Amino acid sequence: MSIDLSNNNNLAFLSILLDISERFEFTLQFQRLYNSLKIKNYNFGERIEASSLFLIGIRTIQDYQNILDNFILKLSVAFSNEEDSEYKAIHTFINYYSQVVHNFSNNNYEKVCEIRDEIIKKSKQEEFHFLQNETISTVLQLDITNNIVAFQNIQNQLDLYLLQFRKIYVSNNTQNLIESVGEYSLELDSVATNFNSIRRISVNKHRQINDSNVFYSLQRGVSILSEEKQLFAYMHSFGKMHYEKLITAFEYLPSEFFRESTNIIDWGCGQAMATMVYLEYLQSKEIDQKINQIRLIEPSEIAIKRGALHIKKFQKNINTITINKDLDSIEHKDLIQNKSITNLHLFSNIIDIDFFSLHQLLEKIEANFKGVRLLPFIKLKKKK
């Protein structure tokens, strides 16, 4: 399937995926997205350009060393002039260093130490003051004699660094949540069962409110929502983009997947837009797939209640479980215990959110989902 690169929404979506590919170190996906956007003369910014230096065309440890000067220079510009917070530049730098350590510290320890010493030397120069970050200093002091242990320790330090930007959201309400009967639910009953009709309710409500401060309170879509007017604003401002990227992603699911029963896990589900679009996709393709369970995970109580209501609109009797927690607070008991069934993981609402531990999230998925795992926007992987 081709994507229309003349569409600004598509370009913006691809740039988000590019950022995610850098964070997860998906080198092949990063290269494809980068090249697609490069054709359109897309302005990546210095941080992504820095990422491209170590995620594209790198084969040897000497390649990592050759790009070091330019890599640090670009990150320094991004740190000073582009990013609204320092953490992204720090994150990208640590990704570079962790890759060097992970790939080469066991078989070329001296060269890795040489690169580390070059970095330490540069950190003392005023123009590269972002390298004086405490987390970077700690990472550079870690023992790197064992590449696996060193990589794990680097990731732990990165998680501790990002922890200062996070807030923990855990609800004491353990029962399945759903929005009670009210004005919105009555309007929902009266519209057609498709995403655009449902979104239109919020679009109309948001226009009636007519308050730009509500939109700004969304913080570009990463804020934890606490008021109904924010639900309307989010659906109005970001719903169409989510719908388009989801429909595109579902086209890439293998045809044999639809013949199997599945569980859906909607991570950071918000108002369950990803699950809604998937159910609509099945309807539009006349696919009769058995869905055993839908598990919604979301820190905003008001959003997850509405999400459960949206799911009920599509399928009244489907087994929907709500988990009102942030991703870092998810425990083993919160996740599906049946290990033999295919699981569809949806990450639509979190691909541009940085303030949770990616490393911990992947560990939870690896530990708790041993069958076939389909992860649109991240990767397709089958556990052997």
Write up what this structure looks like:
With 384 residues, the protein is α/β, with parallel strands linked by helices. 54% of the residues lie in helices and 8% in strands. The protein has helices spanning 8-24, 27-39, 46-55, 61-66, 68-82, 87-104, 109-123, 134-140, 147-163, 183-190, 195-209, 212-216, 228-250, 273-284, 301-314, 358-368, and strands at 262-267, 291-297, 320-323, 342-346, 372-375, 379-382. A hairpin with a 3-residue loop joins strand 5 (372-375) and strand 6 (379-382). Helix 3 (46-55) runs antiparallel to helix 5 (68-82) and helix 11 (195-209) packs antiparallel against helix 13 (228-250). The model is unreliable at 376-384 (pLDDT under 50).
In short, what is this structure?
The chain has 384 residues and is of the alpha/beta class. The protein has 16 helices and six strands.
List the helices and strands and how they pair.
Blueprint: H1 8-24, H2 27-39, H3 46-55, H4 61-66, H5 68-82, H6 87-104, H7 109-123, H8 134-140, H9 147-163, H10 183-190, H11 195-209, H12 212-216, H13 228-250, E1 262-267, H14 273-284, E2 291-297, H15 301-314, E3 320-323, E4 342-346, H16 358-368, E5 372-375, E6 379-382
Parallel strand pairs: 1-2, 1-4, 2-3, 4-5
Antiparallel strand pairs: 5-6
Helix pairs in contact: 1-2, 3-5, 3-6, 5-6, 6-7, 6-9, 11-13, 13-14, 14-15
